[in-house]
Amino acid sequence: MFVPRICIAIIVAFFLANNVSVEKKVDNLTEQVVRQKKVRGGYVLADLLTYGVSAYLKDKTEQEHLEDICSLIWYLDAIASISGQQVAEGMYVLQDANSVVFNFLFRYSKVYQRISSHFKEYYTPHYGIDIPKELRERLLLPHNNHHILFGLLPNGYMFIEPEGYGLRYLSDRFAHLRDYLRYVIKKRYKPSLLDAATARHEVIPHAVAMRWREVIAQLCRDTSCMRQYENLGLTFGIKKMREIVHDLSKKKKLNNLQQQAIQRFDAALVGYNYLDVRRGREVIFMQHDLVD
Question: Which H or E run includes 147?
Fold first, then answer.
């Protein structure tokens, strides 16, 4: 019997991923150690913004650089929690006008370019940093992650997504494939799970997507026009949706049904900040959010 290669890959991925040795869990860290990591990350960011990347890294060893990167991730996790955006899994989008944070990550000696399913619409390269296996007992990231995915976004922003596993080590690749398949299955068959309070991916919330289809159907009577705008909004997210609604509503006098559809769409966005740059449920930090 012929078995497609993808089926073999999936079977092997699940087998190997479930046999990866169990590292020390974040849950075992004391509150004091976690607090120290978060405070250290705040100092790292403050020094980077004050002195610049080159000056900050001048006397740092490779391991010290990696330790500071981990501390920065702990700090982002802390600030997200303080602002009521707890992240068990998901993404941070940072205002990084001078690319300070990006260059701090990019200049780590073992950074590598990698494929990614995130923000594919921008066609920009993405990069990964793995916590080396021999250091995973000591260098821990929040929520038992061992990898940092990051990349640049338009208009002076960047994204950082801590992930369970990266793509440098073979066993990590299989574990990463397992996690990715789980994500795809949830997105396809149980999208509501991606709207969980602590799931902060750049995925468009289900309620927003539903109201988007409704409002664009009201504003565009032509089917081809409606499909074009609908797909554009679903590709680029909330910021693009709002631009389209604004532009279309200016071109005509709105009837009651159209006005009500816009009101329902706006209501679905309540609770989300920074709508002008938001794609989905990601955590967004302006620079003042991080240093105030």
Answer: strand 147-153
Please say whether the beta carbons of 284 and 278 come within 8 A.
yes
Tokens of 230: 């609908």
CA distance 83 to 111: 30
Q: pTM score, two decimals?
A: 0.84
Contact between residue 82 and residue 272 where contact means Cβ atoms under 8 Å apart? no
Q: Write down the mean pLDDT value for the chain.
A: 87
What is the SS3 assignment for 149? strand
3-class DSSP assignment, residue 32: helix
Are the CB atoms for 66 and 104 separated by under 8 Å? Answer: no
Which tokens hold the place of 81? 């929690």
Q: Where are the alpha helices (DSSP H) in 83-162?
A: 100-106
For the chain, the distance separating the N- and C-terminal CA atoms, rounded to the nearest angstrom, is 63
The reported pLDDT for the residue numbered 29 is: 62
Q: Can you read off the two tokens belonging to residue 195?
A: 């709207």
* Residue in the structure block whose two tokens are 């049904």: 257
Segment 246-287, tens digit of pLDDT: 999 988 889 999 999 999 999 999 999 999 999 999 999 999
Cα torsion 180, 167, 171, 182 to 10°: value is 0
